[in-house]
Amino acid sequence: VDGSAGMLEQARSTGLYQELRLCVLGTEPLPAPAEHYDAVTVVGALGEGQVPSTVLPELLRVTKPGGFLCLTTRSNPSNLRYKADLEAALGQLEQSRAWQKLLAQEVENWERATTEEESPQGTGYISGVVYIYQKCPVPHLEEG
Asked: pTM of this prediction?
């Protein structure tokens, strides 16, 4: 799934994907039925000016109970506000028992910085975070 037809064409040219779908995450529903995927990954899209953190319930919708979600975001200065909002939304879903956090791992040299301001340590790289969650199973109602 990608919001760019051009990126989907590049993905198609690799021959690696069985199915490709055009969808702008956070503005329209994912093109999949509820509880369809064992695992959902969002890498390189959860950031300021990209996919809003309000997409999280939609990601959960298409994940099977007991399935996994792997999400990433950047920790560079221009993304810190987004990261804080994302982590608040992640926490709210955990508190509501929609999912359980398995991992939140900071990665120091996540990707090359595009400006010196984005790499305060002077390494030329920005850091990022990998989050792994497991969707909680649907509780069974007792009869009687």
From this structure: 0.89
